[in-house]
Amino acid sequence: MSAPFHADVADAPAPARVDWLTASDGVRLRAAFWGSGALPLVGIFPGRTEMVEKYGPTVANLIEHGFDVAVIDWRGQGLSDRLYDTPLRGDVPDFADYQKDVQTFWAWLGSLTAQPRHILAHSMGGCIALRALANGLPAQSVAFSAPMWGLALPAATMASVAPLNAVLRLTGQDTREVPGAGEEFELWNFAFERNELTRDPERYAWAQAQVRARPELRLGAPSMRWLAAALREMAALDALPSPALPAICGFGTGDKIISPKAIRSRMARWRNANLTEYDGALHELLLERPEVRDDFLTRCHVLFAKAD
Predict the structure, then answer these.
(1) Phi, psi at residue 122, to the nearest 5°?
(2) For the chain, where are the E strands, in sequence order?
(3) Residue 1: its pLDDT value, please?
(4) Are the CB atoms for 36 and 18 separated by under 8 Å?
(5) How many CB atoms lie within 10 A of CB 13?
(6) Cα separation of 212 and 206, whole Å?
(7) Which 3-state string (H, E, C) describes 179-194?
(8) Do the bridges between strand 117-122 and strand 68-73 make them parallel or antiparallel, or are there none, so unpaired?
(9) Which CA distances in Å does 237 have to 58, 130, 132, 145, 243?
(10) For 82-85, which contacts have Cβ atoms below 8 Å and span 24 or more sequence positions?
(11) Closest CA to 100 of 120, 76, 70, 117
(12) C-alpha 202: how far from its chain's center?
């Protein structure tokens, strides 16, 4: 079934398809596909708060370099199903739910193309992708942008999350937002000078304009149970071996959201992998200054081409 796509804010070619998909538990998801099915495909795994339209320039770049591309809205964000009573709150009770989205997305792509598939995963999408690959998801290679394999939170804060969430769950309040969450989770209002996403003012203004023009694409702070689930998943993933496929990873040394230590540890244990650290860059490499963005994308092109 055809789903909407906001071309006015996407800066991307028109997709070949934008469909509503239904996960195994009945959650409705939105996914978009660009191409003919005749070229190698890059499946984009977005980060938390992100949606199909935000990847418009990245999609255009990958198409220009000879790839078909697809992007999914994870449950709880974009135009996929959200919490009914608090749609601006990012929420899942368990990160295993995202794997239902992955399986639905990958099966849909299998109906559209028989070409090799690669993964480009950002932040939370990197966490989801690592679990999917560990579970045996078929892919030729994977590129990670600032993957969420750990969070830049004090140890005491992380230790307090599980017991606090348990108490909130007993009273039915675990879908409340993370305590202390403020305007930094409102991209549409937050000043560039204080942002932790990019050092490129033009790309930041573009991302803000998207969610100002299309409020239905906005997402705010995560829920307590999302944070508790994220910490459980990252701890579980840390104990697993690295998948046996080619990989690259990049992150900015100025990133204040994810854990550089967790990334370095994982990449040191990944055969046939390469890590690039971008001096001074912030969290979103694909929205960063041109020299960072272009270098990371070029590394993606080389990886995907070699792995076919």
Answers:
(1) -115, 135
(2) 17-22, 28-34, 41-45, 68-73, 117-122, 141-145, 247-252, 273-278
(3) 65
(4) no
(5) 15
(6) 10
(7) CCCCHHHCCCCCCHHH
(8) unpaired
(9) 28, 8, 11, 17, 11
(10) 83/175, 83/223
(11) 76
(12) 21
* Torsion on CA atoms 200, 205, 206, 207, rounded to nearest 10: 90
The model's pLDDT over 243-269, given as tens digits with 9 standing for 90+, comes to: 999 999 999 999 999 999 999 999 999
**Tokens for 227?**
């944070």
Q: Closest Cα to residue 243, out of 76, 81, 86, 119?
A: 119
**Sign of the dihedral through C-alpha 171, 175, 178, 181:** negative
User: Does the pTM exceed 0.70?
Assistant: yes
Written as one letter, the residue type at 80 is S
Angle at 55 between CA 256 and CA 78, to 5 degrees: 85
Low pLDDT (below 70) residues in the chain: 1
Six-digit token string for 84: 């009914």
Classify residue 72 as exposed, middle or buried by CB count within 10 Å of its CB (0-12, 13-18, 19+). Answer: buried
* Rounded Cα gap, residues 261 and 182, in angstroms: 26
Which of 185, 219, 198 has its CA nearest to residue 78? 219
What secondary structure letter does DSSP report for 146? S
Cα(215)–Cα(211) distance, integer angstroms: 5
Q: Are 95 and 124 in contact (CB under 8 A)?
A: no
Residue with tokens 């070409």: 115
pLDDT at 191: 97
CA distance linking residue 26 with residue 283, whole number of Å: 33
**What does the pLDDT look like over 91-124, one tens digit per residue?**
999 999 999 999 999 999 999 999 999 999 999 9
